[in-house]
Design brief:
By secondary structure, this protein is of the alpha/beta class. The protein is built from 11 helices and 8 strands. The chain has an 8-stranded mixed β-sheet, with helices on both faces. The radius of gyration is 20 Å and the shape is globular.
């Protein structure tokens, strides 16, 4: 396999889980890979450099080329250091996969400012930091691929994840704006919502039978299912795909709709509170149900 021969990729958070499988497949497809990972826990605490080193060794054992990086995506200067690692080791950069993430789940009325700020910093600001640092390189060379990771927690919603949901929906906006800003330079930007068992979603509560059943279904979803779509979007074959939101659920790949007006009402005299109350039903039939991700995807995954 050589769909990415001579390409250079950065995969953030690639020491474990989804990121690790992405790094391994990109390397198998011929890319040189920067394996970025702090080696922290699911909450972002701690630091273990051997986590990234082990993935680098796996890639090298398979005949690929990789280098480890331990910088934090949440810091603007550190993100630039990750980019510099690719340039100093491999001399170029073609692909940025914004996968790094943490969780600090808490009901909104109990969430601390620190729990909000930390999750936003890693997911949303981290994705911006990496995208901003790479964008000047991609602009200059008139080519590049950004692949961001969103979540149905943001696209649909989840209980106890206001920080994570806000960050993940924000990433969709970042990806779309990046696609628009960079289109003239032959740079694409897409987002993926993954369904896969990882240490992050291992924090899902299992207090009820329904919750236990859902977790057992999720455990069937390997992170390896996500990697082929990432490798495809990173290739020259996907040069005409940008600004899209994909989902991968086992062996099922989906494309998500994006917000567009679906129904409107007009009043030549302008609206008052009373007149809006009178026509509420005209719009209400088109309201989106208040659902969490598990209610939209209750069916068994295709594994």
């Amino acid at each position: 396999m050589s769909n990415l021969k001579d390409k250079v990729a950065i995969v953030t958070g690639s020491g474990r889980g989804i990121g690790r499988d992405i790094a391994l497949l990109l390397a198998k497809e011929g890319a040189k890979v920067v394996v970025n990972d702090l080696g922290g826990g699911s909450d972002g605490q701690g630091n273990d450099t051997k986590i990234a080193d082990e993935v680098v060794q796996e890639i090298q054992d398979l005949g690929g080329d990789a280098v480890a990086n331990y910088d934090s995506v949440a810091d603007y200067e550190s993100a630039s250091n990750i980019i510099d690692t690719a340039l100093s080791r491999f001399g170029r950069l073609d692909i940025v996969v914004n996968n790094a993430g943490i969780l600090r789940d808490r009901m909104l009325f109990k969430m601390s400012e620190e729990e909000w700020d930390t999750v936003i910093a890693v997911h949303l600001k981290g994705s911006f930091n990496m995208t901003r640092a790479a964008s000047t390189i991609f602009k200059e060379q008139k080519s590049g691929r950004f692949i961001h990771f969103t979540s149905t927690s943001g696209l649909i919603g989840n209980v106890g994840q206001a920080n994570y949901s806000a960050a993940k929906l924000g990433i969709v906006g970042l990806s779309k704006s990046t696609a628009l800003d960079m289109a003239r330079y032959n740079v694409t930007s897409n987002a993926i919502a993954p369904f896969a068992w990882s240490r992050l979603i291992g924090t899902i509560p299992t207090e009820t039978e329904d919750e236990k059943e859902r977790v057992e279904r999720l455990k069937q979803l390997s992170p390896a299912h996500i990697a082929p779509l990432v490798a495809f979007l990173a290739s020259d074959e996907a040069a005409d795909i940008s600004g899209q939101i994909f989902g991968v659920r086992g062996k099922e790949i989906m494309v998500f709709s994006q917000p567009r007006p679906i129904r409107s009402v007009f009043n030549a005299k302008g609206w008052s509170v009373d007149s809006l109350s009178a026509i509420k039903g005209s719009l209400q039939s088109s309201f989106t149900p208040l659902e969490a991700s598990a209610q939209v995807f209750p069916y068994a995954p295709l594994v």
